[in-house]
Specification:
Number of strands: 10
Structural class: alpha/beta
CATH superfamily of one domain: 2-enoyl-CoA Hydratase, Chain A, domain 1
Oligomer: single chain
Distance between the termini: 48 Å
CATH architecture of one domain: Alpha-Beta Complex
Strand order of the largest sheet: 1-2-3-5-7-10
Length: 262
């Protein structure tokens, strides 16, 4: 079943499900509706025998600028949910954590926040030379999410992880490849085609062998799930603080945040 959204394009071709974040006017910043569509499609793909691989990508000059701050600040676009209902962002993170089929990403440009941390759950990530990667959670008075406080140090080492997560350092595609954050840098003009070819190759492989190999490589899922839960508690708490209020105001007013009096 395909779940549609105004800003998530869904394409099925030869065993590959491609989910494209398509909100270029906002640099593909993710809303609750977009998260819901992404989550529903990733989950549905796991039980669809015609889908072997899922690809995530963006449009124009951005993969995604991360979360739509209006949603997270409780703006008018925030969805109403039951008290015990998992929010769409949580459903999406659980979906990519639990995905049994290969998950690929074609990072076509700007990747910020969850635009980077979701890549830690992808099995293969390729980027164009103009792609940039930044996780400025602390800059916004927040903490890392998506299990990144566990996965990032494992992937790139503690020192590089601290540069990315504590300092919010922005890196380019070449540096991302050098430290192991992505698998490779591909020509910008052929990125989508080349990643589609990789996806098609995987889709043609023995499906159970592919799923088992992925499971063996990512055997630490329970640890990551607990880390996600712990991060979520702190992330939610930080959203209610003066630190985040100042960061959100500064972002809206296009000025540096001032935490000196907090």
């Amino acid at each position: 079943m395909i779940t549609t959204s105004e800003h998530i394009d869904v394409n099925r071709t030869d065993g590959v499900l491609t989910l494209t974040m398509n909100r270029p006017a906002k640099k593909n910043a993710l809303t609750q509706e977009m998260y819901a569509a992404l989550a529903d499609n990733v989950v549905a793909a796991q039980s669809d025998p015609d889908i072997r691989v899922v690809v995530l990508t963006g449009t124009a000059d951005s993969f995604t600028a991360g979360n739509d701050l209006a949603d997270f600040a409780g703006g008018p676009g925030k969805a109403k949910r039951g008290e015990n209902e998992i929010p769409p962002v949580g459903r999406f993170l659980q979906a990519i954590l639990q995905a049994e089929k290969p998950l690929l990403a074609a990072v076509n440009g700007l990747a910020v926040g969850v635009g980077v941390t979701m890549l830690l759950h992808c099995d293969l990530v390729y980027a164009s030379p103009n792609a940039t990667f930044q996780t400025p959670f602390v800059n916004l008075g927040l903490v890392p999410e998506a299990g990144s406080s566990l996965l990032m140090p494992r992937l790139v080492g503690q020192q590089k992880a601290n540069e990315l997560l504590l300092l919010g350092k922005k890196i380019d595609a070449a540096e991302a490849e050098r430290i192991g954050l992505i698998a490779g840098v591909l020509d910008a003009d052929t990125l989508q085609h080349d990643v589609a070819q990789v996806a098609a190759t995987l889709a043609a492989r023995a499906p159970n062998a592919v799923k088992l190999t992925k499971s063996l490589v990512k055997h630490e899922r329970d640890d990551v799930a607990q880390q996600m839960a712990d991060e979520s508690v702190h992330f939610s708490a930080q959203l209610q603080t003066a630190e985040f209020a100042e960061a959100a105001s500064a972002f809206a007013e296009r000025r540096p945040a001032d935490f000196s009096k907090l």
